[in-house]
């Protein structure tokens, strides 16, 4: 089972550094723009009605807590949602 974080960025931020390089290496997390997510087959991603900048982070369910805590602490994140996905 995998999970996907839908991360809403603060205006003017790029999403670089949402999670540490160590975490990226350990979890093999994939951080994608909406277009990149659709290109790899994550269909059905709704557009954000408010037009906010988003990133999608796909990870194994077992790494959920680690990413969750880093997103909570990131100054670039205004909000995030968690989605369960089957790959």
Summarize the structure.
With 87 residues, this protein is α+β, with helices and mostly antiparallel strands. It has helices spanning 21-27, 34-39, 64-73, and strands at 2-9, 30-32, 54-60, 77-85.
Give the SSE map:
Layout: E1 2-9, H1 21-27, E2 30-32, H2 34-39, E3 54-60, H3 64-73, E4 77-85
Antiparallel strand pairs: 1-3, 1-4, 2-3
- Output the structural class: alpha+beta
Work out the count of structural domains.
1
Return residue spans where pLDDT drops below 50 for at least 5 consecutive residues. none
Any guess at the CATH architecture?
2-Layer Sandwich
Any idea of the CATH class?
A: Alpha Beta
* Termini gap: 7 Å
Q: Tell me the series of helices and strands, N- to C-terminal.
A: EHEHEHE
CATH superfamily annotation: ACT domain
Strand content: 25-35%
Indicate the radius of gyration in whole angstroms. Answer: 12 Å
The overall pLDDT, averaged over residues, is: 92
Oligomer: single chain
Q: Strand order, biggest sheet?
A: 2-3-1-4
> Tally of extended strands?
4
What is the percent of helical residues? 25-40%
* CATH topology group: Alpha-Beta Plaits
Can you walk through the features of this model?
The protein has three helices and four strands, in the order βαβαβαβ. It is an alpha+beta fold and 87 residues long. It has one domain: ACT domain (Alpha-Beta Plaits, 2-Layer Sandwich), CATH 3.30.70. It starts with a strand and ends with a strand.
